[in-house]
Amino acid sequence: MMAALFTTITACDPKKKNSSETESNKTTTTEDITQLEDTVSTSPQAIQPKGPKPDWAPASLTPQMQAVLETLDSLSAGKKLTDLTPQQARQAPTPTDAVKTLMQENNIPMPPSKVDTSGVQIPVSEGKQIYARIYTPKNGAGPFPVIVYYHGGGWVIANLDTYSASAQGLAEQVGAVVVSVAYRQAPENKFPTAHNDSYAAYEWVLKNAASIKGDPKRIAVAGESAGGNLAAAVSMMARDKKAQLPLHQLLVYPIADFSMNTPSYQANANAKPLSKPLMAWFFDKYLKSPADGKNPMISLVQANLKGMPPTTIITAEIDPLMSEGKTLADKLKADGVPVTYQNYKGVTHEFFGMATVVPEAKQAQQLAAAELKKGLDK
């Protein structure tokens, strides 16, 4: 499992446990410099791809992003998720695995954790339970603001470990308790199971925030990809049920349109790690029928968005979902919702959790944390 990639990494000499062990008048020798250079990690800017840009990629694809995709291709041995069963796809290498491999190859250390983790079972429909992992800042007594986080994976693949970097990083940078929700996945559980599970988890947090060192009055939702869709749907459900509304929602390249015929779908139909065929595969597995795709909880761009919480939307240039993310931002604004929108050029879907190797991810994470802090500072 990857530790948080949000944290800035400071290179140091591991032979020195603390500064007090270093004599102030020690002379630096050539041998000392060589030893220090051997321990200093590679900066993201130094990471370079090994081959030419893929045929589907625009000229703007950054070297670091290309290196991640090359590594993922190597780990995947050319296998496409669309050729696998959902069960097989859940075992396939992920972008998180590619980042971890690049870190190892380039001597980039894993940042030390600034959170404690624990787990909880949350009751959902039909007498079932789902698991949630709780990330609690080590520093401070609380009560902390709370972020309910929903991972990506098209409602079909990925898990809490795949997106642990994002959840842990939000906890560390915002200074919040993050509750990362393992909603039930398709095709075993069709629409709207993941959506209902996600709302049940939000309700649980509203009622139990104090028990996890959280402030029940300062709660936000966040998610990536399918998780971004779930976060927005939770806000919509809370509004419609007249429940406590999240103070802020962070939507990172959210799924927001079933049409799959937007400009970015056309431009990035064959992109990686997310392509148009893979999105069609996800929809096929989660939705009971194409009619479900028109439901406002799936096609957020067609929903009534009035009364939604202040929103931050982050998109990637080389991503089929970029256009619908921008459209969602525009429609939220038109419905009177305060919106911060930022598109990051040269990067693809899933870039957000890659701050140790992709500079744009670090920028996006800093923006997300700043906006969440602002929204939760009530």
Automatic annotation (TrEMBL):
Keyword Cytoplasm (UniProt): no
Feature: compositional bias, Polar residues: 32-46
Keyword Hydrolase: yes
Keywords carried by this UniProt record: Hydrolase
Matching Pfam families: Abhydrolase_3
Ranges for domain Alpha/beta hydrolase fold-3: 147-352
Ranges of Basic and acidic residues composition bias in the record: 13-24
Stretches the record annotates as Disordered: 7-57
Molecular function in Gene Ontology: hydrolase activity
InterPro entries: AB_hydrolase_3, AB_hydrolase_fold, GDXG_lipolytic_enzyme
Protein name: Alpha/beta hydrolase
Source organism (scientific name): Pontibacter populi
